[in-house]
Design goal:
Strand content: 15-25%
Number of helices: 5
CATH topology: Glutaredoxin
Radius of gyration: 16 Å
Distance between the termini: 54 Å
Strand order of the largest sheet: 5-4-3-6-7
Structural class: alpha/beta
CATH class: Alpha Beta
CATH architecture: 3-Layer(aba) Sandwich
Largest sheet: 5 strands, mixed
Length: 179
């Protein structure tokens, strides 16, 4: 009976979240555990990514930082959400994760609190991202990326193994289209 009720509640949440037009009404926890609104990113091109520090794709932090530095002054932001949901590959506290990323990859983009991207504990933002992307499947692994337009809509979803040069090109194209 509990599973049925939980399933119904999850479906109701998915329907409610899917009805939202953009990401700006979502609230997430920052790296200090405080709830913050994504409305502060209104008008910016965003790349939202679930990450891990002990993953085969962890070296993508270097590429992400390069893309961030290349386009940040043009109104581009990366929102990094560490996720320990895949093989326990984001262990430690958010402070430890931040320290690792800074020391090893010189990350300067915004990092948020750890989250889950699939299942009953996934945050509403990820429910919405998946529902509004062309590929609506569950997140398969860390370093799945969502490119978000300046009006808060999903432009493209990139899987972990997609080339970072394709991510870079999509960011450049989206920024050019906004001018």
């Amino acid at each position: 009976m509990r599973k049925i009720i939980a399933t119904i509640m999850l479906l109701m949440a998915v329907v409610a979240v899917s009805a939202q037009d953009n990401i700006y009404s979502f609230k997430v926890k920052n790296d200090k555990g405080e709830e913050v609104s994504l409305e502060q990113y209104k008008g910016k091109l965003l790349l939202i990514v679930n990450t891990a520090t002990r993953c085969g794709f962890t070296p993508q932090y270097k590429d992400l930082e390069e893309i961030y530095e290349k386009y940040n002054e043009q109104g581009f932001e990366i929102l990094d959400f560490p996720c320990n949901q895949f093989g326990g590959q984001a262990p430690g506290t958010i402070a430890e994760i931040k320290e690792f990323c800074t020391a090893n990859y010189h990350v300067t983009f915004t990092q948020f609190d750890k989250i889950e991207v699939n299942g009953e504990n996934e945050i509403p933002l990820y429910t919405w991202l998946k529902a509004n992307a062309e590929n609506k499947n569950n997140i398969r692994w860390n370093f799945t990326k969502f490119l978000i337009s300046t009006d808060g809509k999903v432009l493209k979803r990139f899987e972990s193994g997609d080339k970072m040069s394709d991510v870079d090109a999509a960011v450049a194209q989206a920024l050019k289209a906004d001018k």
